[in-house]
Amino acid sequence: MxxxxxxxxxxxxxxxxxxSFSPSYSYxxxxxxxxxxxxxxxxxxxxxxxDLTCLGCRTLVSGxxxxxxxxxxxxxxxxAFILECVVLDLFPGDVCEGMVRLLGEQVVYVVNHTSFExxxxxxxxxxxxxxxxxxxxTNWTVDLPPGKPEPDHPxxxxxxxxxxxxxxxxxxxxxxxxEGAAVNCDxxxxxxxxxxxxxxxxxxxxxxxxxGHCDIPAHTLDHLLGQAKEIVQPHxxxxxxxxxxxxxxxxxxDSNMAALNLTTSLLYKHFPDIPVLAALxxxxxxxxxxxxxxxxxxxGWDITxxxxxxxxxxxxxxxxxxxxxxxxxxxxxxxxxxxxxxxxVNMNYCGTGNFFLLMDNVDPVDEMKWLVYQxxxxxxxxxxxxxxxxxxxxxxxxxxWSHVFNSVVTRFESTIRGLFFGHTHHDEWEVMYDVDDATxxxxxxxxxxxxxxxxxxxxxxxxxxxxxxxxxxxQATWAVIDHTTYSMNLTEANANGLEPIYQERYSxxxxxxxxxxxxxxxxxxVTNMATDDALFQTYLRHRFTYAEExxxxxxxxxxxxxxxxxxxxTADSSDDRPCQRIKDIINGNE
Length: 590
Ligand SMILES: *[C@@H]1O[C@H](CO)[C@@H](O)[C@H](O)[C@H]1NC(C)=O
Ligand SMILES: *[C@@H]1O[C@H](CO)[C@@H](O)[C@H](O)[C@H]1NC(C)=O
Ligand SMILES: *[C@@H]1O[C@H](CO)[C@@H](O)[C@H](O)[C@H]1NC(C)=O
Ligand SMILES: *[C@@H]1O[C@H](CO)[C@@H](O)[C@H](O)[C@H]1NC(C)=O
Description:
This protein is of the alpha/beta class. Helix content is 40%, strand content 13%. It has 2 domains: 8-126, no CATH class; 163-177 and 215-589, Purple Acid Phosphatase, chain A, domain 2 (4-Layer Sandwich). The chain contains 19 helices and 12 strands. The strands form 2 sheets. The chain has a 6-stranded mixed sheet with strand order 3-2-1-10-11-12. It has a 6-stranded mixed sheet with strand order 4-5-6-7-9-8. A hairpin with a 2-residue loop joins strand 4 and strand 5 (340-344). It is globular and about 70 Å long. The two termini are 40 Å apart.
C-alpha cells in the first residue's frame, strides 16, 4: 500500500507537471521519477509500473471522489495533497504548494462533475492502453465531404528562388533567468536566483543560457531571432507555440502574459514586414494545459483572458475578420499569399493534460467541424494548405481527437502540403497514414526542435529551421522541398563570451539522401532507420540538436530504437499498427 500511495502521489504530480516537463525523452530511467518525467505517453514504462500507476491513479481519483462526497472542501483536499508531497519530499515545499493550489480547484471540480469513471479518467490522463480496458472517452466523428480527389504528393525540383519559411517553436523565454545560478537544482526549472546560485564546483548559468534544466534569457531569444532573420532571410515565419517558461507551479496570468508580450514584440521587431503566423501552445494557459470547454464556462471557468490577448497580439499579422475564430477557440485561417491558406489549429482540445476534456470531449469549440469546412473551401478554390499546431497528434493527444484529425488529413491529403508542429523539443517528424490503410503515408508533421535549452533529461542547443518550399508564384505546389536546421553551441558561446554562432547542422535531403520530403519519402526513410545503424545514428544526433555529451545517442539500445522510431510513425494515437510494423522489422533484423 505504501508503494501504491507513493505511486498515486506521483500521479498527482503528473497532473501538474508531467505534461509540461515531458518534452524530453531520457533513456536513463534509473528511478521512478525519471520514468514519469521522461515519456509523454509512458510507452517506455514496464507493464508492472504501468499497472501500479493505473492502480495508484484509480485509488487517488476514488479517494478524491470519496472526500468530496464526505463534504470536504477544495481547501481541505488540497491541504492533504500538499502535506503528502512535502512528507514524501517529492519537491521543495513551495513547488508542492504552488502546483496543488494552481490545479486543485479544477481537479476537484472535474472529479466532482465528470460522468467518467476513475478508470476512464486514468486511462485518458495516463494514455495507457491497458488501464483496465480504457478505449477512449466518448467516441465521435466528423462528417467528411464526398468526392475525394486522387492522392497527389508532388516532389518538385527546387525552383531558382525557393520560398523560405522560418519555423520556430517552444521559445520558453525566462524573464527571471539569472547568470550564475545553478543549472541543476531541486526545482523543476533552474537558472534562477530564487532556485539557487551555483556553489563552487557546480555548473553555473552562462551569459547565453544554462546547460541544465533552464529556459533561455530574453537576450538569447532576441539574438536568435536576429540571426534567424539574417541567415534565413525568410519570406514568412511559423511559430508553433509555448512562449512562457517552465515554472509551472509558480505562474500567474500576468507572468504568462509578460512572456507572451515580450516574445510578440521581439518577433515584431525582427519581422515587421512579413507574415508571422503562430499557433497556441499548452504552456500559454494558467495553469498549464488548462483549456476549459464551453460546457464549463457557465461555472466560471474562463479562457477568454488568453484568447483576447492572443487576438490582440496576433492582430499585427492577421486580418480583423479572422479574430472572432481566435476568440472562439484559439484557431484561425489566413491566406498570406495567393494560392496558400495557413490554418492554425489549437491542439489543446486534444491534449491529455487538459482535464476539462473529461467534462466534454466531443469536438470542443467545434474545431474539427471548422477545420473540415476550411479545408473544403480550400479544395473547392484549388488552394493549398499548411497546418500549424503545437502538440503533434500522435503525442499526448486524446485517441478520438487524434483519429478524427488523421481522418480529416486523409480526406484532404492532396490539399494539405505540410503540417508544422513543436512541443517535443526534439527534431523529428510524425508520418500520418491513411486511416483505412495504415501502410499508405498521407501526410507529414514536421516537428522543429526548440529555441529553448530546456529538457528534463539533458539540455538542447537553441535551434531554428528553414523550409525551402515550392511557393510564392502562380500555380505553385507549396510542397516542402527540404528543411535545414541551425543551432548554436552553448558551451562555446558561454566560454568565449562572444555572440553565439548559429551553424547549419544539416539539410534533410543531403543528410538522409532522400529525393524529397513527401510523406512516402519520410516513411521510407524511417523504415530504413529500423535496419541501417549509421542512418539511425545520424538521425539521433539531429534529434538531440547537437547538444554536447550526446549520451542519448550512444546509449540508444534496441528498445530505445523501437520507441524512438515508433514516435516517428505514430500520428494517430489510437492506432499502433505503424509502430508494430517498425518493431517487426527491428525484431526480424536481430
Ligand atoms: C461538488 O458538487 C456539488 C454539486 O454541484 C456541490 O454542491 C459541492 O460543493 C461540490 N464539492 C466540491 C468540493 O466542490
Ligand atoms: C470510433 O468510431 C469510429 C467510426 O465509427 C470507429 O472506426 C472506431 O473504431 C471507434 N473507436 C472506438 C474506440 O470505439
Ligand atoms: C501585455 O499586453 C497587454 C495588451 O497590450 C497589456 O494589456 C498587458 O498589461 C500586458 N501584460 C504584461 C504583463 O505585460
Ligand atoms: C561545442 O563546443 C565545445 C567547446 O569548444 C566542443 O568541445 C564541442 O565539440 C562543440 N560541439 C559541437 C556539437 O560542435
